[in-house]
Amino acid sequence: MLPIDIHLVSWNRPKMTEIVIRSIHRNTHPDSFRLVVLDNGSEQSTRDMLKDMHENGLIDELIQLDENMGLEFARDYMLYKATQSEQFVCLDNDCIPQPMVNGQDWLQKLHELNQKYEDFAAISLRTQVMVGTGNIFEEADEVGDDIVEFPHPGGSFRIMPTKLIQDIGGWDSRREGRGAEERYICGKLRDVGFRCAFATDIHCLHLFGTRGSNETDRWGYDPSFKPEDTGHSDISHPALTNGDDLDDVTMYAGYDNAVKYFK
Prior knowledge:
Elements: E1 4-10, H1 14-27, E2 33-40, H2 44-55, E3 61-65, H3 71-81, E4 87-92, E5 95-97, H4 106-116, E6 120-127, H5 138-143, E7 147-149, E8 156-161, H6 162-167, H7 181-191, E9 195-206, H8 227-230, H9 238-242, H10 246-253, H11 255-262
Parallel strand pairs: 1-2, 1-4, 2-3, 6-9
Antiparallel strand pairs: 4-8, 5-9, 7-9
């Protein structure tokens, strides 16, 4: 398997972004991926942190925009200007991949699913909670299915074929703010006859922002931000009100990274 590009889009949330990047390196074979980070006009503290991580080899390619151009613009920019692999993985800055199991990492397993199910052009990792959709995995867990078809899997390590996404025109980079990028691109894939899904047995941990003295909204952003600024609806869900669990974060990110995240 050749190195696969991982496209991470960041906007503020520096502690969350840092633990995601460090956990990718912790839980992924070093020669199997190339990490590209596009920062969408974050505040200076996040920009400085990302520059430092790039200089220390934790980011292979760093793109820093002066203003937030929207998630669709970021996805489209990286698709055409920063992709070297035949498949690429889309990632938001709030998901941590599962640790290796018996020497095999999440990316190798996801790549194998991508090769096995050729009619599925977008497959994302399974998050620990599906906000707003209920448990779509109940039947798959019972019968042992590899994937669960879903119309628009989001940016939780979503693998897609590079040439196909380029051929259908990628994202609408002119769209302002943070829209529903997964509905847009997966809708275009379905229009040309492909299907989309979540992996059943390859997991990731969706972070929701630290709590306590770090006051944020339900998604880890500054509480002054409006939903149209962040692209996250102001909905109520237990995972959003309870925040992140230290034991869960430790399991996925390791003790040192978890302690730093919660500090």
